[in-house]
Amino acid sequence: MQTSTQTSMQTFGSRLSAAMNQHGPLCVGIDPHAALLRDWGLTDDVDGLREFALRCVEAFGGHAAIVKPQAAFFERFGSPGVAVLEETLAGLRAAGTLSLLDVKRGDIGSTMDAYAAAHLGPAAPTRADAITVSPFLGVDSLEPAFELARATGSGIFVLALTSNAEGAQVQHARQRDGRTVAQTVIDAVADLNDATPADRRVADIGLVVGATTGEDIADLGLGDALEHCRGPLLAPGLGAQGATVEDIARAFGAASAQVLPSASRAVLAAGPDAACLREALRATATHAAAALG
Q1: How far apart are CA 194 and CA 118, in angstroms?
Q2: CATH of domain 4-292
Q3: Which InterPro entries is this protein grouped with (predicted)?
Q4: Contact yes or no for 245/261 (Cβ under 8 A)
Q5: Where are the domains of the chain?
Q6: Cβ proximity of 126 and 114 under 8 Å
Q7: Largest CB tally within 10 Å, which of 74, 75, 172, 266?
Q8: CA–CA dist 76, 53 (Å, integer)
Q9: Which has the closest alpha carbon to 13: 195, 275, 265?
Q10: pTM of the model
Q11: From first to last of its 293 residues, what are the pLDDT tens digits of the chain?
Q12: 3-state SS of the chain?
């Protein structure tokens, strides 16, 4: 039975749908790896990390549909880096901008429950609006994360079809029923999103499908399944990995309106000036909106 809080709570899918319509269908990354810190004239330490991250918050806060900090680039500096990550997520929240923490968590039972509690909901120390998760211990192993996301109005993005060559060893493998592992993940997310209102652009549970996987989508016959899942389709690899929004539109076909291309280096290369970063974001988002509809 739903409580009054659950009934009145705005879901992640409804918030993301509104943000995509307002700002354009684009996820922009905050990826403070060593080379980018140097390119921005910053030191490769926690001070440089903080300057980089907060400048991104200044540039993107209030101007992007969703912003995706990559946790690894903060965690490599230990607890001071995690503190900067907490500050970054809080800054995005204060700006009214959705955050997607790229952590790719995946485990079982109480461990998965603890991972979810670390990142989702108002009590989470590194609180984000959504996180990425790995289903390759079985989609059902992620139920603690799905449950907490439902209870807190948060989102989950499940890895399904990644662009790295090694991913095919698992994701393209066939099950006894003939479906690929990738399709079993997509179908499971479709079941989770089954009750999504028809007028909403995207549902609460999304998928990660690489921007350069167009041939795989076609070869594996996944186009209809992606559209049917109703979830937002995070497509990393726009720009730096060679994918264009036109490539993405062709690859995803009827599911294009659900696609959330993700650009990191292609936008971050415009830094360190916040105004230049914001202009690169705006131009990329406008282009994505025109191509994806």
Answers
A1: 27
A2: 3.20.20.70
A3: Aldolase_TIM, OMPdecase_type-2, OMPdeCOase_dom, RibuloseP-bd_barrel
A4: yes
A5: 4-292
A6: no
A7: 74
A8: 14
A9: 195
A10: 0.95
A11: 333 333 347 999 999 999 999 999 999 999 999 999 999 999 999 999 999 999 999 999 999 999 999 999 999 999 999 999 999 999 999 999 999 999 999 999 999 999 999 999 999 999 999 999 999 999 999 999 999 999 999 999 999 999 999 999 999 999 999 999 999 999 999 999 998 888 899 999 999 999 999 999 999 999 999 999 999 999 999 887 778 999 999 999 999 999 999 999 999 999 999 999 999 999 999 999 999 97
A12: CCCHHHHHCCCHHHHHHHHHHHHCCCEEEECCCHHHHHHCCCCCCHHHHHHHHHHHHHHHCCCCCEEEEEHHHHHCCHHHHHHHHHHHHHHHHHCCCEEEEEEEECCCHHHHHHHHHHHECCCCCCCECEEEECCCCCHHHHHHHHHHHHHHCCEEEEEEECCCHHHHHHHCCECCCCCEHHHHHHHHHHHHCCCCCCCCCCCCEEEEECCCCHHHHHHCCCHHHHHHHCCCEEEECECCCCECHHHHHHHHHHHHHHEEEEECHHHHCCCCCHHHHHHHHHHHHHHHHHHHC
Residue with tokens 């429950």: 113
**Both structure tokens of 152:** 């807190």
The whole-angstrom separation of Cα 31 and Cα 46 is 14
Active site residues: 104
Between strands 27-30 and 259-263, the pairing is parallel
- Cβ-proximal residues to 175 (8 Å cutoff; 6+ apart), any chain: 181, 184
Of 97, 204, 94, the C-alpha closest to 152 is 204
**CA–CA distance, 34 with 166 (Å, rounded to integer):** 25
